[in-house]
Amino acid sequence: MKTVRSLLVLVSLILAFQFIRPPLPALSQEMLEYQGIRFRLVPGGSYIIGSPPQEPGRYVDESQPQRVSLEPFYIAATEITNAQYARFLKATGHPPPLYWEDKNLNDPTQPVVGVTWHDAAAFAEWLSQVTGQSFRLPTEAQWEAAARGGLSGKAYPWGDALPDAGGALKANYRAGGRRLTMPVASYPPNGFGLFDMAGNAAEWCLDPYTPPRSRGPFKPGTARLLKGGSWFSLARDLRCAARQSAPPDFTDGYIGFRVVRLPAGGK
Fold this sequence. Notes:
Layout (H helix, E strand, L loop, with lengths): L1 H19 L10 E4 L2 E6 L2 E5 L16 E5 L2 E4 L5 H11 L24 H15 L2 E3 L3 H9 L18 H7 L28 E7 L15 E4 L16 E3 L8 E2 L3 E3 L5
Parallel strand pairs: 7-10
Antiparallel strand pairs: 1-2, 2-5, 3-4, 5-11, 6-11, 7-8, 8-9
């Protein structure tokens, strides 16, 4: 009889607990989603960007290591895909980019390429309008801090050497490797949960190209920055500090982008 009473008491306590237990915690704010685009939080704080003179593969236009202070921001976890860009085209009537009909580059899961800097900026403006939030292209400092994923001073998003995770990954990250983009998030993310911060598609940044010393054919201020290298890049161009540039109306099959969402009142 005591056993039965004990069981009844236990059941009563369990049932009561269902009504008095504390509410489940809110969903983590480390990830947000807008228009099918997932964003990861890059914490605010102090970050080191640039490259030391002894870093293998360093170019003369890279800045010396410097510490920058950044407000927290959200950045797209992947490059903007063809499927995500298609929503923008349908909603706005914006002209499709070069290579939009290329069967090697237009799978919905591949990053959109062939976009100019102006196209990327227009996408960010549209996303701001339809969500009521503030989106734009990342600054170079934001992009580089995000790419390093918390690994301060490392050459690549995953460390100081190219990854060794099987033939396909090595092929995609070597010079003259895969001659097409891969579906986004084909490989593991960095420490901030961001995919393809090196390789796949080179990414437009907000900043004009104004290096200490130019190694390109464009005058400082007449071109925009590209970061991250691409499927078409040399290994040295995949480093976090590496910088490429092109005029804002330039387009090619290796150029894409991702966007950042700024906090209220952010810049």
